[in-house]
Specification:
The structure is a homodimer.
Chain A (H helix, E strand, L loop, with lengths): L1 E7 L3 H12 L3 E7 L3 H9 L5 E2 L3 H5 L4 E4 L6 H8 L8 E4 L5 H10 L8 E2 L1 E3 L20 E4 L7 H13 L3 E4 L2 H27 L4 H6 L3 H6 L7 H10 L1 H23 L3 H18 L6
Parallel strand pairs in A: 1-2, 1-4, 2-3, 4-5, 5-6, 8-9
Antiparallel strand pairs in A: 7-8
Chain lengths: ~290, ~290
């Protein structure tokens, strides 16, 4: 049970967390802070938060759970702003898509000493829609939430963050920060980059309208993630650059292999690669029954 | 009105064409030929074809419309087999995803002289499912069918193929063979290659199961086409290799640009690319209303 939950950034992710905990009766009061007054007004009107406050400092005062759900690039300034006002019993956590950068932000603000009450976390949930109006109480049911505790994170703080997310119906996992950032560079960040790259390449052609006229369902699915928020993805690339650079290099090697197959007219080589891919995908992501 | 339609290869594409023409009362009799007896039996049972014959030669005898709906790699042998048996009033067309190779096949079989009754065509319809059992009478409604007439194709033959496809509800377009093969190298063949490449790269990792455990909806959409038929796609790569090689090289240049942005820590460069991509995709493929 959380007495007072502070949500800093009341968008899809933070708002859905608040809604779910309220629905399950697991939170006393939800305090919201955000830079967009219109969004905060909507969050209040929808009952996502009980009270809105004009500063981050006011939001965290007296809160036993503080969730930072702002863009990755805004974390460090916000951490510096709230540090003096955190309650003695507060647990501090976040929802960022990259975790090494958040640990760095915390270390920078806490003078190089990671505080025991801080626990990095990353709920894996879609982000095509945004804002408080998009929040859903059941967003996290059967979704994964990855917690990447620092060696300094206390067992009590880890347990409280874990229990909070489990209460939303999420499947909570733990891994190291490095393992997290490499894993999501491959499963999420690289595919986004590749999809943006393809559509940007199309956009540079004079006949882009004609090309799109001849796209079909496969192209639509392949490029759906190229409609994601460009600012959020610029931040992710910046803040997980080393792991993304390695994943991208591995992919470039795979494409160089394909060019070599083309040059050698090695069609059997393509058949082998395509077979591996199909078998792998069918095994791990079987087609949904229609 | 087609008196006698010969469908060589009664799968999703050929079967759906036959079903649609029958439903609209635009075909007298449909003769089917295919190598899989089980599939042909199913096509008969489902009323997709009226009669099955054991050879391609028998299928085309007396047919005024002959549609080759077999894999690209099987076209040339089949063309050689049917050439002596085509009726004097027959129109010959195909449904292949690459068109230069089909023109080459026809030229090879017709001793370098493209026949006036032949018209290359390509219906743009999904191919996730296959076989006669997957055929749908309305598969082509509002779908595009691209006809790429040879300079030798007669206006009468072009008109008869155009009318056949228009009768299914399709939006029939014309372009040159070269324009077709470049267009679909970009809009279809390259995305398939990129999706196969990513999943094959995953399959080579020891922790592939763990990686897939942390994929989400974006990855699922991005890799849906990696579950496509490997043999069909090997054929497409082989038979449209030059155009695919150029599209792949353009994409590799785009990824090299991304690596340069990473090396130069040029995050603004990523923001610009992602913005172009999002604006382009939103403009041409707006999100479906939910």
């Amino acid at each position: 049970m959380i007495q007072r939950l502070a949500i800093l950034g009341v968008g899809l992710i933070g708002g859905s967390l608040a809604l779910s905990l309220k629905q399950h009766g697991l939170v006393g009061e939800v305090i919201g802070y955000g830079r967009s007054q219109a969004n905060i007004d909507e969050a209040l009107a929808l009952g996502i938060i009980d009270k809105a406050v004009p500063t981050a400092a006011q939001a965290v005062m007296g809160a036993d759970m503080v969730v930072l759900a702002v863009p990755l690039a805004s974390m460090r300034l916000l951490l510096a702003e709230i540090r003096p006002y955190l309650a003695a019993n507060a647990v501090l956590t976040d929802v960022g898509s990259a975790k090494g950068c958040w640990v760095d932000d915390v270390l920078a603000v806490w003078d190089g000493v990671f505080p025991a009450f801080a626990v990095p976390a990353h709920p894996i949930a879609g982000a095509e829609r945004s804002g408080a109006a998009a929040a859903l109480a059941d967003l996290y049911v059967h979704r994964k939430v990855v917690i990447t505790p620092h060696t300094a994170s206390s067992l009590d703080a880890i347990a409280r963050v874990t229990q909070m997310w489990q209460a939303t119906g999420a499947d909570v996992r733990q891994m190291s920060v490095a393992e997290h950032d490499e894993t999501f560079a491959w499963t999420s960040h690289l595919p986004h980059l590749l999809s943006f790259a393809l559509v940007d390449m199309f956009s540079q052609r004079d006949d882009v309208a004609r090309l799109f006229d001849y796209t079909a369902g496969g192209f639509r699915d392949f490029t759906r993630i190229a409609a994601s928020d460009p600012t959020m993805w610029r931040d992710i690339v910046q803040l997980n650059a080393p792991a993304i650079g390695e994943a991208l290099a591995a992919y470039q090697a795979q494409l160089a292999h394909y060019q070599a197959l083309l040059a050698n007219q090695d069609w059997q080589g393509f058949a082998e690669s395509f077979n591996h891919a199909k078998q792998t995908r069918d095994a791990f992501l079987p087609p949904k029954k229609s």
